[in-house]
Design brief:
Length: about 250
Amino acid sequence: MTSESSTNGQLVYRRVLLKISGEALMGEQTSGIDVDVARTVADELKDAHELGVQIAIVVGGGNIFRGVSKSAGNMDRSSADYIGMLATVMNAVVLQDGLEKLDVQTRVMSAIDIPQLAEPFIRRRAVRHLEKGRVVIFAAGTGNPYFTTDSAAALRALEIKADIILKATKVDGVYTADPMKDETAVRYESITYQEVLEKQLKVMDASAISLCMDNNLPIKVFNMRKRGNITRVVRGEPAVGTRVWLGR
């Protein structure tokens, strides 16, 4: 897909992977999970799901524990990362509960074997769930330390052959500078992977961006706090967010 456009409100993207940070689930709290926020996210996802979009999700765990953080102290990096993976499982189960309360069939698939809570990640099974109209939530990152959930999102998106990665943030796209600090910051409508890497823009980590670039997988960075933005993105409305891809 070389361009983005909306024709009579039809879907431009039919299979998407949504990357949600753990921080997005804590609302105005300083840590933990705000169940009301999780329900709001679930409500947004239901709207897109009812359009016929196949939705997969990778959720972070930074609201509970992050391997690379002060809370990890002087822990061994691998041990700290595994704790962070377990945090993503907790967030995934909360999000699953919110979706299923809205009658959206959901499956949590974990890269770490936790059969009481989640299915093991098996690529073909994940694709089959999507084809049957189930929302699939990928937990525990890649199952390996030293890899972020950004990298997990890029990897899983490629494995399920998603049309695009939707990167949910608290701002409405990628800017020339931090819009929270610089009033003159300008939003990019689109930008290349190479520009993101060269300008060190904080879209996703460099490994994830490189993986998307090598496989020509577009990324849409958008504000998930604005009601209806997920459906606008899957319909290809260009005014929403910033598209990261190979060329303009």
